[in-house]
Structures are given as structure tokens and as C-alpha cells.
UniProtKB/TrEMBL annotation:
Molecular function GO labels: monooxygenase activity
Name of the molecule in the record: 4-hydroxyacetophenone monooxygenase
InterPro entries registered for this protein in UniProt: FAD-bind_Monooxygenase_sf, FAD/NAD-bd_sf
Keywords for the protein's UniProt record, in alphabetical order: Monooxygenase, Oxidoreductase
Pfam families: Pyr_redox_3 (PF13738)
Superkingdom of this protein's organism: Bacteria
Length: 655
């Protein structure tokens, strides 16, 4: 396995101050107000950067427990105030000294800081991985140094299919490397799923500090969990900052991509909004279509007969007026969970048809705005935003791995998969019961399968308060049929509806959708994948030269992970492969079939030890027709980061 970069190289980022803390000369009152809103553990780490004094970690109160979605380390209010009082003095002194470059810890000092912040949760083996994300090293800035020549890269055109978050970071990497490229997207603008999903209530369920490019500041968010419009604006702002507009070809759909062995190139056929057809020649294709581009509408008898407006949440009609209407929402997963509370106030009546209840975690900040002071702290206090980011992701990502592990000797009737998972289940049930004592409603909303088996939703009580409304009805009887005027359930009850909304998710196991990709010998990728897509590290596919997937098979980390972080890993790896190919003098590369098969097999073996394959998890869109979960990643994110840090030529065939 390639070794990651050593800790504490000097960062090469030109805008390091913008990312890690801009100098400030604000008044005492402004700084005091900011510190009052800041995360105390992250504030404590920033104090060390401002002073270079590790002794503060012995003198002041420190976090006592790292809890998911708690940014204050379970500290008491008196202890937090002690830290804030000290932080004000440190920050004022730092300002008065002219905000000199922040102190950077050596490895031993970093270990001390990590041990305090995470209460010992981050083991030594994670140090390089965490240091890179903290931006204490330049390991993730640009990836490994390029070994090909600028002339080679300039003569290697690339087509990127998809202009979502993955296509954007791929474009940024390619532009920095001097590789010509075009980004093709069927929508009228950038943003991918965040441009397509415009339904009311749509927002991210990963904290913004982590659902952000690691090389871009995080001080501008107005909510802890941003709404769709703000995320879309952020993605467009990033694209503009890095000059991607000139590389876009929008309202253009890729129909086929065909590999030509003689020229070692791809012919990418497209069709524009006016029906104009174009063939783009490329030496490589980056397929950044993602796993949420193909909405699913279930095959329910009579669905086509419904007389009123009927649409999927991913195809929201901007002109729709729901005021006073009787609305049938089919599906109570992530999109339905967000949609229903957002429309309940103006609708006449909302009926929610739920096939399977979802687990949702206690999160008092889910709908809360971020105060101006907290944003000031992220913008100005050295490294504060980076430590805040670590607090937001570690407990739910690699730090939460034990909760998802199946214990083969554990048996509580399938309600959980092990002792840690059971403890988590008990916490979630207690959270649900805090908002309702209605036994009938509890029977409908408390899942009878282990938590984390499906993507864990976030809630501050809004969902249950909405379901308790007189004008909202949760229906768990299966749907038998739909007719022109409404929905009939299996118990024979017909409920009239004016509007039918499908909140029924996406076909993640067939992410190519209508695109035909033909590799060596004309082999069709969709046919090769069938119901079980595969790719080495989720990026490269045997028999398909110079093809790189983003958010490909076996890369979806379900709980607590940010797909943007994964996309950064994949873009770095894809660029590394291109550079390795060019430097070798070869024209094409493909992963060795045995290497890809071993990766796929190992990943599925890992997943069989985790909650996602638990026998009680039967209605999951991650599962294919054989019960496998080919889209999920079963390993640690730190391992994925290390394996994608640079490609190993031994894994590839060159030709």
C-alpha cells in the first residue's frame, strides 16, 4: 500500500490564511461576542496555535466525552466559561501582537492536542490522516508531485461527465495540472443533485464543516446544516473561484462513450438542448454522474392514471402551488423526512405513505442558524475551523465504526447487531419518546431493525411534531393501487389526493442511467456491471481503459461520511493515474482484473460483518437483487484516504 505523506510538511497553499484564519483587528466587544458562540474544544485548540503554549491544556478544563453532534465535548457550563474567559485574553493579545503566523505543532505536540480534543479517541495510526485534514500538512493540497511533463499533460484532453460536487473537484484538479478538459452536464447549471433536488425542506444531513471542500473556507454558512439553495450557491462560487465556467458544456446529455483501441481515445457522443449532436474526443473520461441521478418511481398499479400533478422530489416543478391541497407523499426516507414538515403548514392535508420507518438521531442544531460570532471565529481564529471540522466528523465516521459492527454472538431478536449498536438504539428510542407518548405513533415510527443499517437521518423533533398535527396522517398500510383521484391501500381504504409526490429515492445500483459506455472489444459497462457494479477503489474498471469513476461502486460511506471528502480522494487518485500513465510513456491503463476482484471481494466481506447486511435490513435501496450492497464502502475512511493518496503502478496494466 502506498505510504501517505509525513506529518508537518510546510503547506504549499497560497491562501493558507484565508483557509486557516484571517488576521483581525476587531474591537474587544466583537471578539468577546464571537468567543461566547464558539465551540469550546475547538477554541481551546486555537488558543494553543495563538500562543504556542501546550501548558494551556493542563491549566484549563478540557473535553470529557466526544459525542456525535456535540461540538462542546460534553463540558459543563462553568468549565466552558473558564475556557472562554481565558480565550478572550489570548485572542486580544494575539490581535494586539498583529496576528503573527500561528504556531504549528510537531508530531508529539499534535498527539497531545488530539488526545485532549477527542478524549483519546484518535489513535496513533490515524495521526497522518487527521493532520492532513487539519491542514497541518500539505498531503491533501495537490496530491503527489507530478512526474509527467507539462507538454504531455497539455496533450491529454479529458471529458468529465457530470457537473456536481465531484465533477467540480475533478475540474479543479485537472486545471491545476494543466490538463485540458470539458465538463458536460445535462442540467442548465452546475450543482448535480443540489441543482436537481429543489423540493421544500431540502438540506444536507452532514454538518457543513465536513460537507465542504477541504481546501475552501467554511466561515460563510448561515446554518449548521445548509439548505439546498446555499449549497448550490457554494458549489457555483467554488467553480467560479477556480475558473471552471470556460470548461462547461451545459444542457448537454452524454449518450455514449466508446473506447477506440487504435487511437487510444474515447469518442464521447452528446446531444444538446436543441437536438444538436457532437462527438468529443478525449484521452480519458471521468464519470462523475454519482449515485443519485436516476430517480425511482415504483411500479404501482394505476400510477399513470392519477389526474392531478404527479412528480418525484428530484423533479420538483417550481410553479406548483400546494396551498390548501390534499397531498399524498409516497415515501418517508430522507427526502420525505425533509419535505413533509416543510409543506405541512400550507397544505390542506398531507398523507405520508411509509413503507419502512427510518432511524433519526438527536440533533438540536439541525434547523438552527449559525450566529455571526461563530462565523467570525471560524473566519479569524487560527485553525479554529479546522478543529471544528474534526469535531463534526470524527465521532460519526471512523470514530463510530464499532456501532456499525455485527457481533455474531449477539441476539436481541434482530433489534440491534451488537452491544454498541444496542446502546445507540436505546439512545435513539429515548429521543423519539421525548417528543411523543402516543403509543400508536410510536409503533409506526420506531424501526424494528438495527440503527445505522440505512442512512441515519437527523432531527430536532420536527418530524414527530409534524406527524402529530391534525392535518398530517402517517399511513403504514401497503399501497394497493392508485387511481385518478387518489391512493388505495391494502386494507381497502381510498384516500383522495390533489397532488401526488414521489419521495422514493434513486437507483444507486445502476448509476450510469441512459449513458452507454463501451470499453475494449465493445464491451458495455452497464451489462458488465449488471446489478453488482464494481471498480478498483471505486475508481477504475478492468477492460475500460483511461476511465475514472467518481462516487463509483463500493465508495458510498453511509453514516457520518461526507461524499465531498470521498470525491477529493478520488479526484486526487484519478489525476495520479493520469500522471502515472503519461510518465510511463504508455497510452492506456486499466486496473488488473485480479486486483479489482480482490478489492471488491474484500469490501463485500467487510460489509458482511457490518449492520448494512443485517438480515433485518431488507428494504434498503443499497441492496441489489442478490442481497449484496455493491455501492457501499466497508472499510475505514482513513484506509481509503491512504490507498487513494497515490496509485501503485503494480495494480495496473499499461498498453
Amino acid at each position: 500500500m502506498p505510504q501517505p505523506h509525513p506529518v508537518l510538511e510546510v503547506s504549499s497553499a497560497a491562501d493558507i490564511a484565508r483557509l486557516l484564519g484571517l488576521p483581525f483587528d476587531d474591537s474587544d466587544a466583537v471578539i468577546e461576542a464571537a468567543i461566547a458562540q464558539a465551540s469550546v474544544p475547538a477554541l481551546l485548540m486555537s488558543m494553543v496555535h495563538m500562543t504556542g503554549d501546550l501548558g494551556l491544556l493542563d491549566e484549563l478544563p478540557t473535553p470529557v466525552l466526544l459525542i456525535p453532534m456535540d461540538l462542546d465535548g460534553a463540558m459543563s457550563e462553568p468549565d466552558k466559561q473558564v475556557v472562554r474567559d481565558a480565550a478572550l485574553k489570548v485572542a486580544l493579545d494575539y490581535r494586539d501582537r498583529g496576528c503573527p503566523p500561528p504556531w504549528l505543532p510537531d508530531r508529539a505536540a499534535l498527539r497531545r492536542m488530539l488526545d485532549v480534543l477527542t478524549v483519546g479517541a484518535v489513535a496513533e495510526e490515524y495521526t497522518d490522516y487527521v493532520a492532513a485534514d487539519l491542514r497541518l500538512t500539505d498531503a491533501d493540497q495537490d496530491g503527489p508531485a507530478l512526474t509527467s511533463t507539462a507538454a504531455q499533460r497539455a496533450d491529454f484532453p479529458v471529458v468529465v461527465i457530470g457537473g456536481g460536487e465531484a465533477g467540480i473537484v475533478a475540474g479543479i484538479r485537472l486545471k491545476r495540472a494543466g490538463i485540458p478538459f470539458v465538463i458536460v452536464d445535462r442540467q442548465s447549471g452546475l450543482g448535480g443533485t443540489w441543482a436537481a433536488n429543489r423540493y421544500p425542506g431540502c438540506r444536507v444531513d452532514i454538518t457543513n464543516q465536513y460537507y465542504t471542500y477541504s481546501f475552501e473556507p467554511t466561515d460563510h454558512w448561515t446554518h449548521h446544516y445548509a439548505e439546498q439553495s446555499e449549497i448550490l450557491a457554494y458549489l457555483n462560487d467554488v467553480a467560479d473561484r477556480y475558473g471552471l465556467r470556460e470548461h462547461l458544456r451545459l444542457e448537454t446529455e452524454v449518450t455514449t462513450a466508446t473506447w477506440d483501441e487504435d487511437s487510444a481515445s474515447w469518442a464521447v457522443e452528446t446531444i444538446g438542448a436543441q437536438g444538436n449532436r457532437t462527438v468529443l474526443a478525449a484521452r480519458a473520461v471521468i464519470c462523475a454522474v454519482g449515485q443519485f441521478g436516476n430517480p425511482i418511481i415504483p411500479d404501482i398499479p394505476g400510477a399513470a392514471d392519477f389526474a392531478g400533478p404527479s412528480f418525484h422530489t428530484a423533479d420538483w416543478p417550481d410553479e406548483i402551488d400546494l396551498t390548501g391541497k390534499r397531498i399524498a407523499v409516497i415515501g418517508a426516507g430522507a427526502s420525505g423526512f425533509q419535505l413533509v414538515p416543510a409543506i405541512a403548514e400550507r397544505a390542506g392535508h398531507v398523507e405520508v405513505y411509509q413503507r419502512t420507518p427510518q432511524w433519526f438521531a438527536p440533533n438540536i442544531n439541525y434547523h438552527q442558524p449559525i450566529g455571526d460570532g461563530a462565523r467570525w471565529a471560524t473566519r479569524h481564529l487560527p485553525f479554529y475551523g479546522r478543529w471544528l471540522r474534526l469535531l463534526s466528523w470524527w465521532p460519526l465516521a471512523d470514530g463510530g465504526a464499532e456501532t456499525a459492527r455485527q457481533d455474531p454472538d449477539w441476539d436481541d431478536g434482530g433489534l440491534s447487531c451488537g452491544p454498541a449498536n444496542r446502546a445507540f438504539r436505546d439512545l435513539l428510542v429515548a429521543w423519539i419518546q421525548a417528543f411523543t407518548s402516543d403509543e400508536e405513533l410510536l409503533a409506526k415510527v420506531v424501526p424494528q431493525y438495527p440503527p445505522m443499517g440505512k442512512r441515519l437521518l437527523q432531527d430536532d423533533g420536527t418530524w414527530l411534531r409534524t406527524l402529530a398535527r391534525d392535518d398530517v396522517t402517517l399511513i403504514t398500510d401497503p399501497i394497493a393501487e392508485i387511481d385518478a383521484t387518489g391512493v388505495r391501500t391494502a386494507d381497502g381504504v381510498h384516500r383522495a389526493a390533489d397532488v401526488l409526490i414521489w419521495a422514493t429515492g434513486f437507483d444507486v445500483n445502476h448509476q450510469l442511467g441512459p449513458i452507454t459506455v463501451r470499453g475494449r472489444g465493445g464491451r458495455d459497462l452497464a451489462e458488465a456491471w449488471g446489478d453488482s457494479p464494481y471498480a478498483y477503489l471505486g475508481v477504475t474498471v478492468p477492460e475500460f481503459p483511461n476511465l475514472f469513476c467518481m462516487y463509483g461502486p463500493g465508495t458510498n460511506a453511509v453514516n457520518g461520511a461526507s461524499i465531498i471528502y470521498n470525491s477529493e480522494c478520488q479526484a486526487r487518485y484519478a489525476l495520479g493515474c493520469i500522471d502515472m500513465l503519461l510518465a510511463s510513456g504508455a497510452r492506456a491503463l486499466t486496473p488488473r482484473a485480479d486486483v479489482c476482484a480482490d478489492y471488491t471481494r474484500t469490501n463485500q466481506e467487510l460489509l458482511r460483518t457490518q449492520v448494512y447486511t443485517h438480515p433485518k435490513i431488507v428494504n434498503s435501496y443499497f441492496r441489489n437483487s442478490t442481497g449484496e450492497v455493491p455501492t457501499l464502502y466497508g472499510g475505514r475512511l482513513s484506509d481509503y484516504w491512504a490507498r487513494t493518496s497515490r496509485p501503485d503502478p503494480a495494480d495496473y496494466d499499461f498498453g
